[in-house]
Every structure is written in C-alpha cells, then in structure tokens.
Amino acid sequence: MSRPVTDRSVVRSLLAEAGVRPSKKLGQSFLVDAGVLNDIERVLAQGSAETVVEIGPGLGAVTEVLLRCARSVIAVEIDRRLAASLEERLGGGDRLELLREDILKLDLTERLVGERAFVVGSLPYRITAPILKWLIGHRDVLSGALLITQREVAEKVAASPGKEGSALGILVQAYADVELVRRVGKGCFSPVPEVDSTLWRLAFREHPQFESDPESFFAVVRALYGTRRKMVRGALRALLPSISVASVLEESGIDGTVRGEELGFDQLDRLAEAVARRPDGA
Predict the structure, then answer these.
(1) What span, in angstroms and rounded, lies between the C-alpha atoms of 162 and 120?
(2) How far is Cα of residue 166 from the mean position of the Cα atoms in its chain?
(3) What's the rounded Cα separation, in Å, for the pair 54 and 58?
(4) Using one digit for the tens of pLDDT, what is the confidence trace for 131-155?
(5) Distance from C-alpha of 61 to C-alpha of 19, rounded to nearest angstrom
(6) CB distance 61 to 39 below 8 Å
(7) Does the pTM exceed 0.85?
C-alpha cells in the first residue's frame, strides 16, 4: 500500500473515498498508532498460527501486519463499503480472503477443517461480550486471540474470579489463559473514542478450569456475580430452595457467609457439583 493508514489525514481520505462516515453503532474507530501495530506484530511473532482470522479489518492497518506474520488471513468485515475499499487496496493475492459477513454469524468449524486459527481484532464495545462468547464457542478450532477491547472489560477479565472480576471474565478465564499486553489510549484511534482500551491475549487451555457440568457451573457463577453484595448462602437462593442451601454449602465445604467474588475456581467447581447433585438445583 502506497499510503500509510496510520496517518489521520489518510484515514479521513480513505473513508471519504469509500463513502463511509464512521458509525458509533458499529464501533468504527480506526487504529493509527504505529507503536500498537508493532506490539501486535511482536506478539504474533511469538506464536505459530498459520491462519489468522481478523475481526473488523476496517482500513487494513492491522491486516498489513497480519499478512507479514501469517500464511493466510481471513478478514471478516460487516461494512461492505470498507470491505470493497480493502479489497481494492490489499486484495488480488491468494493469502487474503475477505468475507463480507457478521462475525457472530460465521461458523469457523466449516472453514477450518483439520487446522486451528488465531483471531485478531479490535472489538466494538457493544458486542464485546457476544464476540468473547463466540470465541469460546469456537475454541476447538482456535488456539487463541489477540484483542483490543475497552480497558475496563480487559481488566475485569484479567481479575476474574475476584472482587474486581465479572461473570464474563470467569467464562473467559475458565477456558483460556489471559495476558494483558499494553494499554491503548483513546488517542491511538481515529476518530478518537470516549474511553481507553487494552491490547490483551488469550490462549485456550487444553482443559477448562472446572470439572462440573458447564450449565451448573455457570449458573452458579451468574447467581453469585449477579448479586455481588449478598453472601453465598443468600445468592444461592436464586438457584435452590432455602432448605437446600445449607446442605449444598456443607457438602461443598464452602463458607456461606463469604461473598461469591471471594471464591476461586476450585471452590466454584465444588459448589457447582453440589448444586448439580440436588434434584431441585440448577
């Protein structure tokens, strides 16, 4: 590409040529910081993913990095105008496949037969949680991901389980090891968003951090983190009749007077197993 897309004037020019006015609804804010791009390339160089799936390539700043690091890139862009612009500037080779699709509707298991891919993307705030769940749902064909999300989301995921964590964070940490790579200030984007972001990596684990039935495990997590001010014995009443709570706590060896955010994976797992054994439980 002759024109660098890390220049804000170039971003404005390319958007005008494509007839695109950045949409807040779609989270269209484009990375223009060369240092962040260098860090993305550095992290990718540490792995061995031959195929990379990029979520929302936009104007292609990250796509260029991916094409230097991977054997092939599958770029998924929902905005057909941006996809057309990207194809005109970066298309024509056999290493870049451009899909004009909604990432949440894409079934990677049909495309990745006999191989595992790595995902890279800057996630729009409004659909960050659905995309994280989508990633976990495709973990059998993915080795991991390198993501840019709102800073608060990344920090909550990294702090889970715990007082600063979240139910979503436990979902991610249950299946993947998480590493915060660097802060990405809002000034690294054009247009400038309202909040700072974080670049972080997740690597899917061979086995999840719990052994109980997933439905019971995450029902317990949602109950505990949905009523954070309540003690465990109170939060469990969302899942069990009051008469059953005491026996579940005794069976699992959990102190009912602590709050759910104080429990680690082992304790959550024991609690979920005890709840699942109750005929009136989750």
Answers:
(1) 27
(2) 14
(3) 10
(4) 999 999 999 999 999 999 999 999 9
(5) 18
(6) no
(7) yes
